[in-house]
User: What shape does this take?
Amino acid sequence: MRIPAHSVCTAIREDIVAGVHERGSRLTEELLARRYGVSRVPVREALRTLEAEGFVVTRRHAGACVAEPTEQEASDLLEMRLLLEPLGASRAAQRRTEAHLKVLRGLVRLGQERARRGHSDDLRSLDGWFHETLAQACGSPALTSTLTQLRHKIAWMYAVEAPAGPVESWAEHGAIVDAVARGDSERARAITAVHTERATAGHRLRFGSGGERAERVRNSQHAVNTSGLRH
Assistant: This one.
């Protein structure tokens, strides 16, 4: 059975994000095909997709290599996320389905429970699932795809510190879902903007001289009204 190129692409992307394939390292079709147990055809297709996404570059005399993003490129991604995630939440308030709401509410319940118990490992995966579902709920394939790519690239370029207040962070998640459920696009946008800005403040570059902070990202001092949350 021929393994789809998108499955190979997902596997290579995940290994790049995890650091299995280091920045600047060569990605030879033969070795990749052997690693993932496929022919060179889906590997070739996957590398083309990953190059379009910015994870891979083609160099003269070297072929496909893992990209080496600059600090400026990494900082730009955070600013793009600050702009696009609130837009996605606003659209989700207008276009979400009952299925999306069911998943989002379930994730909020789990996240709030794990936050109270201090289960940080669970919170990281639940947070990713929450934001992926919120992106899917926006009803725009192009925006969903862009937000997904941003999350992959940010995970690749940045180490993320655990939030200082996980209980408060998940209360914000709950407030976002409440606004989405009510169809209140402006409130969904506003809460998500504050939430994303706060979360972004905990990002630290994985590369660069001494792993400097992305200074263009500022801490938010805004307060979020999370009264009346549904549990």
Remarks:
- The first helix runs from residue 5 to 18.
